[in-house]
UniProtKB/TrEMBL annotation:
Protein name: Leucine carboxyl methyltransferase 1
Keyword Oxidoreductase: no
Annotated GO biological process: methylation; regulation of signal transduction
Keywords assigned by UniProt, alphabetized: Methyltransferase, S-adenosyl-L-methionine, Transferase
Chain segments annotated as transmembrane: none
Similarity field: Belongs to the methyltransferase superfamily. LCMT family.
Job of this protein: Methylates the carboxyl group of the C-terminal leucine residue of protein phosphatase 2A catalytic subunits to form alpha-leucine ester residues.
Keyword S-adenosyl-L-methionine annotated: yes
Positions bound to S-adenosyl-L-methionine: R58, G83, D154, L155, E185
Amino acid sequence: DKRAVDNSNIIATNNDACQCKLYAIERGYWNDPYLKILAGSIQQERRTPEISLGYYVRVHGVRYLIEKFIKLTNNDCQIINLGCGFDTTVFYLLDNENLRFKHFVDIDFEEITELKSNKIHRLPSLRNKLPMDNKSLKIPCGFHSSLYTILPADLRNTTQLDNQLKLLATNSIIDFTKPTLFLSECVLIYMSNEHSLNLLKYLSQTFSQCCLFLNFEQINMNDRFGEIMFENLKQRSCHLIGMESCQSLNSQCERYKNTNYTSSFCLTLNEYYKKYLNINEKRRIERIDGGLDEKELLEQLFEHYCFSWAYRDENNLGLNKITF
Ligand code: SAM
């Protein structure tokens, strides 16, 4: 079945993200005791400092904006992590008593959600973090507790996604009118532009009062360096079918404008790194692997990733304040 083969290539990208993150965590770029528990131990493959710095910035930037969102909503919010893989954000938040939320939902293909759910069920170090829900909702290939649900869905199929989210809404687990943050880290790039647009539109229509979509992904893939990145990914049989749609900062913002978001922003990792990252933190992480010989490679790499976000804020909660 061609479709299954295609999906398995996309699913394998989670393994790659986990391995790079585990490597950087072991080197001390940031702290995350949970990824190792979820994703197993690391393969002994050395990563360049540029790659580890890239992952650091990705995790750091996304967490920074999540925290701003939670604070702005006074903890009265939902977070939905699209194409979550083995991402551990929910455990990071649960460990931080200033960062509460009403519900956190992880979504991915069922091959991933089943593995993630089984691990959480089996491992007390994860399971004990999660207060159980007396509603005891059973989700096939997924997981449910009072603060956290794992849902299997193909994000290209908004009917399936809608059914899954309605299951939560009718059980009062999520609320379509509550402030909701959508996360997508290196996910849309694996979909066609049409599928991304459908997904973005479905979410802004369904959570129409107050939602923020936060995206991190590859960009500027049409120059020489981008072509090399693309070839590298292809060798690992990942086809970046969304690539043609996100070639520039502009096309990122266009995508939101065409799907009912009222404001949108986009910046490259270079811009973030140079303008917004704390100088002491920058010094610390640049020293971990003995310093960078020259910055050119880092700058080239960082020109090919971006943060972008967009929102609808019908109740004037102040989502315009969510920025670096
Ligand atoms: N977001 C996680 C992170 O940053 O660590 C995982 C990133 S990994 C590169 C991409 C993830 O998106 C994979 O887990 C993959 O299965 C998921 N994904 C891609 N397309 C998807 C789709 N159509 N439906 C559900 N999940 C999808």
